[in-house]
Write the structure tokens for this entry.
Amino acid sequence: MRLLVLGGTRFLGWHVAAAALERGHDVATFTRGVSGDPPAGVRALHGDRDDPAALPAALGDWQPELVVDTSCRTRAAARNAAAVLADVHGYAFVSSLNAYRNWPPGPIGAEDGEPTWDTEDDDYGPNKAFAEREIGAAVGDGFLTARAGLIGRNECSYDRRSMFVSLTPDGVSVHARARKVYRKLLAEELG
């Protein structure tokens, strides 16, 4: 299977690329080319996701069947991905709980009952919600959103769960219930 990882040299994307390569997939990453290399054996493609010509130029004749998007942060990047990758068989989009209009403080209820941002605000949460809608409409039934709450770093000693204490009135109880999702485990599921 030809798998494109948008992102792929740091954080979650690197682990997705490594897991997919381990499973025998033909893997490419599309990154800015400034934060390191993908795992050995992975095709490294470079460009700016906000430039509509960059992804088609980088892909050339190599067309992915599946996409795992770990790095979409702007509306331009979402529009460009939707335009270029609409015909893939599957597209897994790593979003965030910040796509929910009522997050924080949380907790979040059933997914279908929680509204997402629908404003034009150029902020992280509204941009993630926009990307979900834009790319999801283009890809159709092959689109999957993974709204992660907190993706922990195996090698990082900083426990970001403490941010919940300062973000919520009931922070202590939220902190106690917060579960870290390690990026390597998430990557194995997505790759």
User: Anything to note?
Assistant: Confidence is low (pLDDT under 50) at residues 153-182. The first helix runs from residue 11 to 22. Residues 52 and 79 are 8 Å apart (CA to CA). The beta strands are 2-6, 26-31, 43-46, 66-69, 90-96, 143-148, 151-152, 181-182.
